[in-house]
Design brief:
elongated; mainly alpha
Length: 170
């Protein structure tokens, strides 16, 4: 759709925009009561749970990819240069899920009732990793059907679809 460079870097770009957008709303910059801090601090535990589930799903996806190494679809992906992109996308999403889970676990143990700059910086960093992880997860999961396409019998699938971007285009 947008090309390989966009596909590779949009999660970090949007995460940067989201965290920079949040910065002026922080009480240690604006001097206002922190509605955002009270909302963000309640999201740590659910983020930990979702990250743990995502780690399991992504690890399963990597196992499927390894088990399909001899399939014609994976051989074609390797020939076309898509395989390394997909493995990188899965690996980065898994790693980011681990980072988000660890961060969320640590931050859920902190007291966010007494706000100071340190807490604000942690929230901004957490929002960055949260958005980055969600978009990296979406990127990997949205490409998974294209990988599994050739593992499904012909009679059970739609006409041949193409991968949404060409890594060889500059």
């Amino acid at each position: 759709m947008f090309g390989p460079k966009f596909e590779r870097y949009y999660p970090v770009g949007f995460a940067l925009v989201a965290s920079l957008t949040l910065m002026p709303q922080m009480p240690w910059i604006s001097g206002h009561h922190a509605l955002i801090s009270s909302v963000v601090s309640k999201l740590f535990s659910p983020a930990l749970t979702v990250s743990a589930i995502a780690i399991g799903f992504l690890a399963t996806s990597q196992s499927i990819l390894i088990s399909l190494k001899d399939s014609p679809g994976v051989a074609q992906m390797k020939k076309d240069g898509y395989h390394d992109f997909f493995v990188d996308f899965l690996s980065s999403a898994t790693s980011l899920s681990f980072v988000l889970a660890i961060m969320s676990g640590i931050l859920s143990a902190l007291d966010f009732n007494n706000l100071d700059r340190f807490h604000g910086y942690l929230e901004v960093v957490w929002v960055f990793f949260c958005v980055f992880t969600l978009l990296a997860y979406y990127r990997a999961v949205s490409l998974l059907p294209y990988v599994l396409r050739d593992a499904i019998p012909r009679c059970a699938r739609k006409p041949k679809q193409t991968i949404p971007f060409d890594p060889n285009k500059k």
